[in-house]
Amino acid sequence: MQTSRFLVFRRLIIFALAGLLIYYHTFTLCDLYLGAGTSTHTTFEYIQSVLRAVIALSLLLVVFGKRWALCGMWAGITGLIATHYWAHFGNLPVDFTLGRHPLSYLKGFIFPTIITLAFHTSRQVGDSNADA
After folding, report:
1. Domain boundaries, the chain
2. Model-level pTM?
């Protein structure tokens, strides 16, 4: 009974955090391409769009329990953070770099880390129940 609650709690964490990230990245993509903005986009925006799509799709697969999708999530998040550093140090004309410390972009690793730890822990608990 205790293990069952622990497993449910871990899965709820995964669903909540992954859901927030899926919503955020999907909303950002929709706003970029469907919102009232310019119809021309930069290479930077296209690269970020691909990375956001990779993040959203891989998180959707993580929610459905696909362990290998964690690699896609990490690749997408790492790439997205790398593009933030590119914008910051490459002096690209984007607003999100104004007044930000370079280390602030590393906050993007917090949710993926929690999701990964919760996924592996819930997987281990589920695997140990299968052995019993």
Report:
1. 2-131
2. 0.85
